Amino acid sequence: MPQILVQDLAKTYRVAERAPGMLGAVRGLVRRRWRTVEALKNVSFSLERGELLGFIGPNGAGKSTTIKILSGILRPDSGRVEIEGLVPYADRIKHVARIGVVFGQRTQLWWDLPVIDGFDLLRDIYRVDPQRYKATRDELVAMLRLEKLLDQPVRQLSLGQRMRAEIGAALLHEPSILFLDEPTIGLDAPSKLAVREFVKKLNQEHGVTVLLTTHDMHDIEALAQRVIVIGHGRVLADSPFEALRADVLAERRLFVDFAQDAPALDLPGVEVRNRDGRSLELAFDPRITSAPALIAAITARHAVEDIHVEQPAIEEVIARFYDLHGANEA
Amino acid sequence: MNALALLGRYFAASMRSQMQYPASALMLTVGQLASTAIEIVSIWALFDRFGAIKGWELGEVMFFYAFVGVSFAFADFLTRGFDVFGSDFVRTGAFDRLLLRPRSAALQLVGHDFRISRFGRFFQAAIVLAVATQMLHFVWTPQAIALALWTVAGGVALFSALFVLQAVLAFWTVESLEAVNALTYGGVYAGQLPISLYARWLRTFLIFIVPLACVAYFPVLAILGRSDPLGAPDEFLPVAPLAGFIFLGLSLLAWRFGVSKYTSTGS
Q1: Sequence spans of domains, chain A
Q2: pLDDT tens digits, residue range B171-192?
Q3: What is the spatial distance between Cα B267 and Cα B259, in angstroms, rounded to a whole number?
Q4: What is this structure's pTM?
Q5: Which residues in chain A are closer than 8 Å to B104, comparing Cβ atoms?
Q6: What's the per-residue H, E or C state across A196-216?
Q7: What CATH topology corresponds to A4-108+170-246?
C-alpha cells in the first residue's frame, strides 16, 4: 500500500462572472452567470514513503487544486485519495495533524509575534508533547539556522529568513509528509540554496515524504527524483527526472556575439532561433551535437566576442511538451 | 491541550502582539470609550428635554443601554476573527491556513484576535450602569447579580452569533456584507432602548427574528423587578436570554454549512 494514493481525481469549479463596477456587483447578487472550469479531469498517481516528488506545470494546470485536495481543504467531485489510510477531506483534522504544508506566498506565522512565540503557539495547536517539541524545535533551529531570528517579530524578517522560519513551523509536529508549494518563489540565491539543501536533508535523513510544486527548474533539478508534469487537469508525464530531462529538456540554447555581423550558419542539428545584428541565438540538441563541439565549430570559422549556453525556460519547455503530448484538446 | 487552554494561549499571544504598539492600543481604547460616550449623552439630552418617556425614566433606560453595551463589547472582543473573516481570510486565502491545522476553524477564528480597544465600550457601559444604579437607588441582590451575568451571557451569545452570520455570508460574497452591520451595530442601537417604544413590526423582529429583546429588554425588566408593559408573562422574563444561545447554535449550524460549501468549491 503506497503512502499516498490518488485515483481518477476530477474537480470542476463554477466561477461567478461578475460585471465590473458597483452595479455589476449588485446584479451579481441577484442573478449570477457561471462559467465552469475543469481544474482536474483525471489525475492518478501514487507515492511511496520517503519519495521526493516534483510537481510541475504552468499556472492553472491543476497543481494547486491537487495539493489542496491532498491536504484536505478541498473535496474532489469524484475520484479517491487515501493518505496513510485516511481520506484527507473526510478526516481533515486527523489528516492535517500528520502533514506539514508550506505555501511560498503565505505566512502561517504571526506577523507581530517573535518567531519563537509562533512556534510555541503551533506546539499548542498541534498538541505536541512539550519534551518532544523542545527536541524537535532545537533540531530545526540548528538545521535552518534560526538561532538569531527566534526573538524577532516575523514582520521584521527578510523573505529568505521568513521562508526558513515557515519551513521550521511546518515541521514542529514532525509530519511524515511535507507539501511545499513554491517554496523558493521570490527568494535570493543563497536562500534558495539553503531551502533546497534543507529539504534534501529532511527527505534523505529523516525519511519525510516531500511533494514539491515549483516553477523553478533548479528546484526540480536539485531535489526531485521523480517528476509529475500536470497540464489541463491531467498527468502528462510521470517519470524519473533524468528521463524527463532527456525527453523534453534536451534542447539547449547557444548565444553567440560575433565580431562582425552574424554569419549564416549551416550546422547539423542546429537551428537559428533569433538573429539580431551581431548576435545569434541557436537551438541545438545535446544528444546530436555537444556544446563544446558546437562552440569549437563556430569559433574555428568566425571571430567571436562572447558565447554562453542556456537551458530553455521552464515555461517554454512545458509549452513544447504540450505540443508533443497532444495538449490540443484544451 | 484542550480548546479552552488553547484559547488562553491565543489570548496571551494577541495581547503580546498588540503590546508591540502600546500607544496605539491605548488610543483606540480611549477612542471607543469617547465615541460611545456620545451616545449616552444624546440619550440623556432626550430625557432632559422630555422627562420620562412612555413611563420609562432615564435611569431605567440606562440599564438597558448598559447591558447591551457590555454584551456587545464582549462579543466584539471574542469574535473579531469572524468580523474580519471576509476581508482577511476568504479574500486573501488565509482561511486555507486555518483548515490546514488540526483544530476547528471556528476555534481558531475566536483565537485570531482579541482587540484590547473593545474595553473602551465595556468601561463606558460599566460606568453607565454604575451611574444608573445610583440614580435608581438600585440594590444589587445576589439574584440580581446572577440574573445580570446570565443576561450578559445571552447577549454575548447573540451578538457573537451575528458576527458569525456575517462571516457565513462572506463565503458567498467574499467581502463581508456591510448589510450585516445593520443587524450588529443597528441591533446595538435598537436594543439600547426599551422595545415598548417601537412600532409593532420592529418589536416582532427584535423578539422573534433576531431576538435582541430576549437578551436585553426582557431580562433587564426582570432585574429591575418591573413587569412588561407589553404583557409578556413575568416567568418568561428571566429565561429569555436562552434565546441568545439558541440563536448562536443556529448560526454555528449555518457556519458549518458555509465551511462545507467552501471545501467543496474552494472559494
Answers
A1: 4-108+170-246, 250-311
A2: 887 665 667 777 778 888 888 8
A3: 10
A4: 0.84
A5: 93
A6: HHHHHHHHHHHCCEEEEECCC
A7: Rossmann fold (3.40.50)
